[in-house]
Amino acid sequence: MLASTTVPGWKGYTQKTASVLEILTFTLCAATLLIALINNNLSMKLFNITGVLAILTLIVRGKTATLTGKACILPAAILLIGIVDVIWYSMFKVDNSPFRATYHSYLNTAKIFLFGTFIVLLASTSKFKVKKNALLYLFYSVSFIIFGYATWLKFNAGMARIDFGIGTATGAAYSIMLIGIISAISILCVEKSHPLLFLLNTAAIFTALIFTQTRSAVLLFPVICAITLVLYFSKAPKKLFLSVITFLTFLVVLSFIFSKPISQRYESAMHDIEKYQTKNNSQSSLGARLAMYQVGFDIFEEAPLAWRGAEERAQSAKGLVAKDKSLLGVMPYLNVHLHNEFIEAGSLKGLAGVLSTLLFYAGLFYAVYYYRSLGLFAFTLAIIGLGLSDVLIWSRSVPIIIICGTTVLLFFQSQRELPARPEE
């Protein structure tokens, strides 16, 4: 008799405990997502706590019917990145290395993706429901807070290219863009979606990106937003037409307002390309990228299966530069990364690095299909698009935003399906 009453009581207690832990995990995850935009150190500490909470929640919750093989595909892809980075770090890290920053960045990435496995797994199997739209509207307001802060930095702090205090303007741009996509998508997840508010959100983030003067983000963000609108209104041609026209109007107006910095960055890009093509000079922003791609690919091609330490890669790069002075632009970046996700992974971890990155992308796309998530689709396009011109799976702030952003979007999806697409 005692056993029959105690077991259900204990089960109820563990379920309540798991629910509290789950709420705390998702709340802290959302807070960490935003803090990563402005404070690397604090966001890393909060992320570690979030990861521990996610593990505890999964343990306390125990078996769940939603824990299926399909739901585990994305967490498994995230886990693979973490394992590969841990193995690489363990194999090649040495004391007093001149490439300490590179190893430290990969160690942080490994921690983020290992903990991220459990955070995303929790979101993938969550049954927790929030009936009100307050959370979605709260996330929607984030873009305008970012816009306000970016405007203040631009005009009051005297920053030519705003960086939000996380190191570089490019890092700030990627963070702004990824968080901006989540913020914009949140307004399409409410019971009565607001396409005009989506467009206003897009305009706010696009302006903040212009303040960073990061070309890849400025070019890619409106394209992703346009694709999102087309997919959302695919069954409503008239509303699609009006939305696209309004979107293009916003874009033209903003481009006109900021024509000077946009034209300056365009002219700078053309100058870099001309300098590289006609003078074989890669000592410029775009020229250095092209040199890094060439050097990284040559190192990978020499031994595709080999793993290399940062020191060995640097020595190989220096050998290539000695033979071809047009690749000189790669030199300042040997203790950073090679500005392309696949080139960077292949030059250090060989084919294993390339495949782990590819499987991560595939895992994201599978999650898009499995959960039918328009928000995760837009987020994935941003991760891959930016990853072709830079390295996002590296260091702290952007990987944290990738994991926390994926978690938040999966949580949005678990609350409700996106409203039925507007029809005529």
What does this protein look like?
The structure is a single chain. With 424 residues, the chain is mostly helical. The protein has a domain at 266-333. It has 15 helices and no strands.
Mean residue pLDDT: 91
Number of strands: 0
Structural class of the helices, strands and pairings?
A: mainly alpha
Strand content: under 5%
Regarding quaternary structure, what we see is single chain
Shape: globular
Poorly predicted residue ranges: 1-7, 417-422
The total count of helices amounts to 15
- Biggest sheet architecture: none
The end-to-end distance, rounded to whole angstroms, is 62 Å
User: How are helices and strands ordered from N to C?
Assistant: HHHHHHHHHHHHHHH
Q: Roughly how many Å is the radius of gyration? A: 23 Å
Share in helix: over 70%
What would you say about this model in short?
By secondary structure, the chain is mostly helical.
SSE layout:
Elements: H1 2-35, H2 40-61, H3 73-92, H4 100-124, H5 134-155, H6 169-186, H7 195-212, H8 215-232, H9 237-257, H10 259-279, H11 285-302, H12 310-323, H13 341-371, H14 374-387, H15 397-415
Helix pairs in contact: 1-2, 1-15, 2-4, 3-4, 3-13, 4-15, 5-6, 5-7, 6-7, 6-14, 6-15, 7-8, 7-9, 8-9, 8-14, 11-13, 13-14, 14-15
Structure keywords:
single chain, 424 residues, mainly alpha, 74% helix, globular, disordered N terminus, WaaL-like, membrane, transmembrane helix, O-antigen_ligase-rel_domated
